[in-house]
């Protein structure tokens, strides 16, 4: 028994956890996308630094090559002028500059590799974020539609009436009104057929008491009485 209760409790906890995850999925997704966008921004800053570093090494390389070319011209002139000592000094300076040149070239190669990698990474991440954003909009739209359906079509609360209930009430009201109208019509027919007015008219027709309605003879006699006497 205890094992069963424990299993039920664990199942309830798991169900509650899944329900919580479902309710907060969009909130979690929003935060995850913000984190991903922040990571992409950091990658972009790193890419910008790499591009700036490569440009700096490029300028250093150009300056070094220019100094090497200038010293080579001067060292050659010193040799031609019989100043091997100056030419040797120039040669040492050129050797040092060539070491700097090689280092700058190596640095630019490293920068180029890193720039290519970062560009690929940023482009891929931005494409994935754009796809996630489209999916998020669709998820929000679906959630909004589900919410509208739940609020507009779901079963009514215990204290609320539903549309079918209102229709049934109107139907009963109309049926009751038709019953009342039919009863009123029947009573009117009964009153018309056997009421005191009808009885009085029947008696008048038999000569008992004054007539209830004027006849053509009555109207004609009244008109003759109003006619002026002949001259």
Automatic annotation (TrEMBL):
Keywords: Coiled coil
Residue ranges that the Swiss-Prot or TrEMBL entry lists as coiled coil: 83-135
Keyword Transferase applies: no
Pfam family, one: PspA_IM30
Record flagged with keyword Coiled coil: yes
PANTHER family: MEMBRANE-ASSOCIATED PROTEIN VIPP1, CHLOROPLASTIC, PHAGE SHOCK PROTEIN A
Family that this chain belongs to: Belongs to the PspA/Vipp/IM30 family.
Name of the molecule in the record: Phage shock protein A (PspA) family protein
